[in-house]
Specification:
Elements lengths: L1 E4 L15 E5 L2 E12 L6 E7 L11 E7 L5 E3 L13 E12 L14 H4 L5 H7 L2
Parallel strand pairs: 1-4
Antiparallel strand pairs: 2-3, 3-7, 4-5, 6-7
The protein binds flavin-adenine dinucleotide (FAD).
The site of flavin-adenine dinucleotide (FAD) has 13 residues, from strand 1 and strand 3.
Length: 135
């Protein structure tokens, strides 16, 4: 099962506010921060995480990249299944990254190198993610 992790405690509709950071170090990115309200976040084997790889104050939508985080990666953890009024069959939870090393090979590159997350922050919901990643 795959989760798509965009929302953060301080970034919902305005995805240009994403602050989960991914800093390149050799052949990996070091991922830090938290996502919340992620469908399947508790059980997913794999999460496509929208992370900030650079910051351009003139263009807040630039510098967002999609990274694949897998179950079992060191320093990757999840929160509890959040209580909801409905949609009980889907879990909804938080993802936490505390210096998670993600191989560069886990960067979704179908739309280019770093930065395809721009498509997400200029669109709404998962449609742009699907177009970008093929999921
Ligand atoms: C059951 C459930 C499952 C979810 N699954 C996922 C998931 O799998 N992955 C994921 O990344 N996220 C997921 N989310 C998070 C969801 O995408 C966010 O809740 C959504 O982006 C809104 O963000 P927010 O809750 O922070 O609300 P806010 O962005 O704070 O918005 C609050 C209200 O203000 C309105 N608003 C916001 N900006 C404007 C504006 N500029 N003009 C006018 N009105 C505005 C909104 O329409 C809304 O009514 C899920 C949420 C729920 C409840």
């Amino acid at each position: 099962m795959t989760a798509i992790a965009m929302t953060e405690p301080a970034a919902g509709s305005d995805l240009a506010g994403i602050s989960v950071s991914a800093v390149r170090d050799g052949d990996s990115y070091v991922l830090n921060g938290a996502k919340t309200f992620i469908t399947g976040g508790v059980q997913a084997d794999l999460a496509i995480v929208v992370a900030r790889t650079s910051r351009d104050e003139a263009d807040r939508r630039a510098g967002l990249t999609l990274l694949v985080v897998e179950e079992g990666m060191a320093c990757f953890s999840r929160g509890r299944n959040l209580d909801k009024l409905g949609l009980k069959s889907q879990d909804t939870g938080g993802l936490f990254f505390d210096d998670v090393w993600v191989p560069v090979a886990g960067r979704m590159t179908r739309c280019g190198d770093e930065g395809p997350g721009r498509l997400i922050s200029t669109g709404t919901g998962t449609g742009p993610v699907r177009r970008c990643t093929g999921f």
